[in-house]
């Protein structure tokens, strides 16, 4: 897992609870924690940090990852190269994660292994099939929920029953009510 993701988790934790708490989490998780953006680290380190945060907050690990995703998106967007076009509509933005954003990420971080989001337009909204060897559907859930904060239209994300090929399936729709 790319160090940039750990840098963002650190920023989120420090903004919410301060830098001492980040150090405490690293101690609890028994990880070194000197993450550089381009470095590669075991996903198990993220799982250990999330488990430590879960113990301290009383939130379950799934909720911790979802909250991190929710707060991570603006920080990730700031790390995209300035020339990358932002979609002007929420569902187009979600499609762009697979078609534009993560391919751009691969130019910045050639060894990255971003997940796949297969998107399918349906009358109910955009059905998004998330596939990843890292299996972080709760992180994906929170990131998708954070799309709401990027646009004036309100975005609703629902987790659908998982299909056998995907790690998770989401329905993302714009709430017109
Ligand atoms: C709604 C928008 C986005 C979603 C839903 C999303 C989803 C995810 C998820 C779930 C992962 C974890 C790895 C996995 O599941 O296999 C990931 C990895 C990553 N994403 Fe995104 N992402 C989004 C936007 C962005 C943006 C704007 C950036 C810009 C820098 C970015 C950069 C990365 C990087 C660097 C990784 C690490 C890949 C690796 O460690 O190999 N993502 N993304």
Fold blueprint:
Layout: H1 3-17, H2 19-29, H3 43-57, H4 61-78, H5 90-108, E1 116-122, E2 125-131, H6 137-145, H7 147-150, E3 154-160, E4 168-175
Antiparallel strand pairs: 1-2, 2-4, 3-4
Helix pairs in contact: 1-2, 1-4, 2-3, 3-4, 4-6
The structure holds protoporphyrin IX containing FE.
Structure description:
The chain is of the alpha+beta class and 177 residues long. The protein folds into 2 domains: 3-77, H-NOX domain (Alpha-Beta Complex), CATH 3.90.1520; 87-175, H-NOX domain (Alpha-Beta Complex), CATH 3.90.1520. It has 7 helices and 4 strands. The chain has a 4-stranded antiparallel beta sheet with strand order 1-2-4-3. 28% of the residues are buried. The structure holds protoporphyrin IX containing FE. Residues 1-2, 4-5, 73, 76-77, 79-80, 97, 101-102, 105, 109, 112-115, 132, 134, 136, 139-140, 143-144, 147 line the site of protoporphyrin IX containing FE.
CATH architecture of the largest domain: Alpha-Beta Complex
Count of individual helical segments: 7
Radius of gyration: 16 Å
Number of strands: 4
Q: How confident overall, as mean pLDDT?
A: 95
First and last CA, distance:
39 Å
- Uncertain runs with pLDDT below 50, 5 residues or more? none
Major sheet characteristics? 4 strands, antiparallel
Shape summary: globular
At the first level of CATH, what is the class of the largest domain?
A: Alpha Beta
What sequence of helices (H) and strands (E) makes up the elements?
HHHHHEEHHEE
Q: Ions, cofactors, ligands: which are bound?
A: protoporphyrin IX containing FE
Strand adjacency order, main sheet: 1-2-4-3
Structural class: alpha+beta
């Amino acid at each position: 897992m790319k160090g940039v993701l750990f840098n963002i988790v650190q920023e989120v934790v420090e903004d919410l609870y301060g830098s001492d708490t980040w150090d405490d989490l690293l101690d609890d998780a028994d990880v070194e924690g000197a993450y550089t953006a381009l470095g590669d680290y075991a996903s198990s380190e993220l799982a250990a940090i999330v488990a430590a945060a879960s113990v301290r907050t009383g939130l379950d690990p799934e909720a911790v990852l979802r909250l991190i995703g929710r707060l991570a998106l603006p920080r990730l967007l700031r790390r995209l190269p300035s020339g990358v076009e932002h979609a002007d509509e929420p569902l187009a933005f979600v499609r762009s994660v697979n078609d534009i954003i993560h391919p751009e990420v691969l130019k910045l971080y050639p060894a990255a292994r971003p997940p796949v989001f297969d998107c399918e337009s349906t009358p109910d909204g955009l059905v998004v099939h998330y596939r990843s060897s890292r299996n972080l559907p709760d992180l994906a859930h929170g990131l998708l929920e954070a799309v709401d904060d990027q646009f004036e239209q309100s975005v609703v994300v629902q987790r659908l029953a998982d299909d056998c090929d995907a790690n998770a399936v989401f329905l993302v729709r714009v709430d017109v009510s």
